[in-house]
Amino acid sequence: MAIKAFRVRMLAGTIVGAAALCWTASPAAAQDSPVPIPADQQAAADANAAAQGTQPPAATSSDSDVPPGTTAQENGPDIVVTGSFLRNVRQEDRASPILSVGQEDLAKTGITSLADITRFIPQNVGSAGGIQDLAKGGGADSRDTRSANLRGLGSGATLVLLNGRRVVPIDGFVNLNSLTPEIAVSRLETVLDGASSTYGADAVAGVVNVITDTRFRGLKLSGQFTHIADSPAFNVGAMWGVGDGGFRSVTSIAYRNVDRLQNGERDVTNFFNPSAGAGANPGSFILYARPRTASGGDVIINGNNYSTLYDRFRNAAGQVTVVDPNCGSAETQSRYVPAANSPGFGLGSCQFSFQAQNPIRPASQSLLIHNDTTYEIADGHQLFAEISIYHQDAQRYGVPSFAQNRNGPTPPIVPAANPLNPFGVDVGFIGRAIGSQGFAGTLYKVQRDQVDQRHLVVGGRGTIGGGWNYEANATWSRGEVNSVDKDTDMRLFQAALNGFGGPNCNIRFNGAGSGAVPGQGNCLYLSPFAKDNLTQDPSLIFNIQTEEIANTVREFLIGEAVVNGTLVELAGNPLDVAVGVQYRQERQVARYSDLFQNGFGAFNGPFRNTDLKREVKSIFAEANYKPFEALNLNIAARYEDYGNFDTLAPKIAANLRPTDWLSIRGSASKAFQAPAIANSTDALISTNVANIIDPLDGSIVFRSLQQFGNPNLQPQKADVFNIGTTLLPVRQASISVDYWNYKYVNQIQLQNGQAVINADPRGPNVIRDSTGAAQSVIVTSYNAPSGTQTSGIDIAGRFELETGALTVGFRNNLSILLKYDVDTGTTVYDGVGKRNNYQTSPLTAAAAPRYRNVAGIDFSLGDHALTVDWRYASSIRDDYQQVLGAPEVARIGAWSVFDWQYAVRFGSDRRFEVAVGMTNAFDKEPPRAIYTGYLSTTSDPFGRQTYGRLTARF
Question: Which region is the signal sequence (predicted)?
Fold first, then answer.
């Protein structure tokens, strides 16, 4: 308590003593480019233009002057500032680098979802969710979801806001596609600096703020069809704005449909990626006794004597494991790999690739509705409300059945009485319940996800008097995911092996019911042998695909109040301050059906129901002061109390403009990220799968990772430093350079399952079955003690040239990664230029190309516009599953693609626009990566995408 009291007094003293310091930001102007450019460049360019005697066009002064389908300007724009609670500070006084993308910029990219804009931000290093990455998981590949991930510090280190307010992270991160229809976006601003002093937790790497157009008047319609081979997509949107200066309401709606894309539909992912062991198909069988025919003779299959094989190779327990007799046949499309001592059959492994049947992305249908309404209740006082409603249905087409991930004391037994058992004795089965040929024509298992998200904000703002302003609001943000999947219930599976299969067999949990006779009437025998895959009764799917349901709800309830104004004038200049408080209640509820929880599922689980709550209380302040016109000084601080821990995040910054053509900025801050609510408990919070090498026998198989929380976790903190400059060497040109550095303390890392099993193969965190095969690995998060560091340089520039009626603009945004520490828990290594998928790399590590660049040229001639973009990520070392320190064996090549778009406006007031374009115009395949085929955080496998869009404004 003494420490908390001291921090509160320190914060109060900081506010009062801020006479010479400030924190400043202002609304970013939309840039005339699809590539984000630091926001201060536009203001600096405007200042330079003013010095040259030119002026921007005057703002519309009356309603009658506003063309249909445009943004009204009466009474000045609504002030939405990213990175500050202060108002009326100049754009060029910003001390933090901010990238700004406006509505026109989004239109030039041809993106079909807001999340796709991250590929035009080189400071965004990969994303969670979206395109499948088998090696990393990276979020749900069963639905349309995507995160931001600035600087590669993890999706949880980037705070995503909608109009400056938090949105519930339903996927463990905020799904960028769930925020607002693209048609409603006024601009998207990205703060490339620690922002915890303003927004609190999760703003370590920066902030992405989506700002909607609240002053649109009229009607706007838009539709786009995007052709992607085997996976077309279309989206339609509408925006309707009504009202005048006292009342305004803008409603937008968007519908998006995306077809699924499978690995088999792309060369880069359609390769033989063998599964073996419990994931094999055809499977393996444990012979517990000498095979024999009904007459007691030797069992000979395909000319091979399995009885004499048993005699020769059985172990001390009288057992021998053999692969399916049809392994290696053309019908099963499998590959028999004999053991070293194999007589040429039986012993070894059966390899089959389910790669082609797995998805690159799921099919999805999304509906998003958004409304902003403002009502002026009195002069200088407004009430406002914001509502966002999001719904998504998604279908993931994948392998028809899961592998056996947990067998219990013994694997499923195919009894000797099963007439389809060719060995004539009881055998144990290890493999997938549905064979490689597609049992009874069942080629896929379809997982269905339904996502519902609601976001409601109500509040008021206005003037208090004496130049002071206030804003108070309450936010309710709730997301729910209902996932319906299918797994093999090992009880029903065993019943079918015993002859009690099919949906109409009277089998109960405690045995056969009345009239149930093995293999007779409604009761069927199931065979796990490849020879019977296509000839069995289709109704036996009942025993192989059992429905299981997972329901997750996350909810935020936030109350916030801020006042800002001029505290005092010092030497004739105002000291502007903002002070605020916030209360945030977080809740996360997870509910799972029986098969997820009871341990009888072949693959999924175990999961446990949870209901977790947390309260966060914050106070924050910032101040701005200009001792003279060329120098802006700023300070901000925020104190947050989570109950079991608390933290203080201060920030100090300065911006110097000695001349109209030069500005110098610098900032230093402490940022932090609190552990996720589930991560702070001792509960089982998730179960996933990963490719694991068992050091005891060298086998490589998918195994479950059971992640438990860690109640001892502390917030990860970072010392953030940025220094930069903007130059305007000539008219219509600007160059911006920033050096950034993040130094971590107590960085939160998730253990790598491979590192856990390597450290102690038979330890308590490795769950093995009765045969000694590893079934699950227990992992948890931890605070890395090393103090890791990442740093780099951002360089952005632009130049515009006018030749008669033709305007040509050149732009470039380059991010250079100088340092990217990866802490394995025992060793820290520099991950720059690496895939960072060593055996011991934490799952939170990202691929780290040294160079990422986005450049472009814009041509404008009257109503015609042509844009060409170039996107580039440098090559990296492919260290997949290597031992740290091993020599390089492969590289993932550079990713370099070109996009273009042509657009023309026509009609009265240029209210119609047609645009056509291509993404990845030269149809370049992604560079190859070990195991996954390609690396989703640096490239994509879609190939050339051709699109057409029609927009109309009324």
Answer: 1-30
Q: Do 839 and 883 touch, CB atoms closer than 8 A? A: yes
For residue 144, the tally of other CB atoms under 10 A from its CB is 25
One domain, residues 866 and 929: yes
What's the pLDDT band for 64 if we cut at 50, 70, 90? very low
The H or E element spanning position 11 is: helix 2-16
Do 131 and 195 belong to one domain?
yes
Answer for the pair 718, 744: CB distance below 8 angstroms, yes or no.
yes
CA dist., res. 872 & res. 875, Å (int): 10
Quick check: 938 and 895 in contact, CB under 8 A? yes
Are 359 and 249 in contact by the 8 Å Cβ rule? The answer is no
How far from 200 is each of 87, 255, 607, 669, CA to CA, in Å?
Answer: 20, 33, 31, 12
* Boundary (domain end) residue, out of 499, 520, 543: 543
Question: Do 182 and 154 meet the contact criterion of CB atoms below 8 Å apart?
Answer: no
In a domain, 501, yes or no: yes
Are 516 and 606 members of one domain? no
* 613's tokens: 């709550």
Coil, helix or strand at residue 48: helix
Contact 621, 580 (CB under 8 A): yes
Amino acid of residue 207: V
- Provide the domain limits for residue 411: 274-353+400-443+489-543
Domain shared by 73 and 170, yes or no? yes
Task: Give me the mean pLDDT over the 157-169 stretch.
Answer: 95
Tell me, yes or no, if the pTM score tops 0.85.
yes
Whether 698 shows a pLDDT value over 70: the answer reads: yes
- Residue 927, Cβ density class (10 Å: 0-12 exposed, 13-18 middle, ≥19 buried): buried
Check pLDDT > 80 for residue 721.
yes
What is the β-pairing status of strands 774-784 and 700-708? parallel
Question: Contact at 8 Å (CB) between 637 and 11?
Answer: yes
Average pLDDT, the chain: 87
Tens-place pLDDT, residues 731-742: 889 999 999 999
Among candidate residues 784, 811, 835, the one where a domain is terminated: 784
Residues 6+ apart with CB under 8 A from 273: 353, 354, 355, 931, 933
Same domain, 100 and 119: yes
pLDDT reported for residue 4: 42
Q: Which residues of 109-132 are buried (b: 16+ CB within 10 A; e: fewer)?
A: bbbbbbbbbbbbbbbbbbbbbbbb
Nearest residue to 312 (alpha-carbon basis) of 339, 278, 335, 280: 339
Residues 234 and 175: their CA atoms lie apart, in Å, by 19
Q: Which residue has the tokens 């995408």?
A: 945
How far, in Å, CA of 365 to CA of 116, rounded? 17
pLDDT at 847: 92
Mean pLDDT score, 62-73 = 55
Percent of all residues in the chain with a pLDDT value above 70, rounded to a whole number: 88
Residues 197/636, Cβ–Cβ less than 8 Å: yes
Could you write out the three-class secondary structure of 862-889? CCEEEEEEEEEECCEECCCCCCCCCCCC
Considering only residues 333 and 49, tell me which one the structure prediction assigns the higher pLDDT.
333
**Residue-level pLDDT at 790:** 94
The answer to the question of residue 6 being in a domain is: no
In a domain, 5, yes or no: no
Contact between 590 and 600 (Cβ < 8 Å): no
Q: How far is CA 616 from the centre of its chain?
A: 25
> 100 falls in which pLDDT band (50, 70, 90)?
confident
Q: Tens digit of pLDDT for each residue in 855-876?
A: 999 999 999 999 999 999 999 9
Query: How many structural domains does the chain have?
Result: 3
Asked if 915 and 939 sit in the same domain, the reply is: yes
843 has a pLDDT exceeding 90: no
Tell me if 12 is assigned to some domain. no
Are 166 and 239 found together in one domain?
Answer: yes
User: What separation in angstroms does the CA of 293 have from each of 287, 300, 497, 755?
Assistant: 14, 9, 19, 47
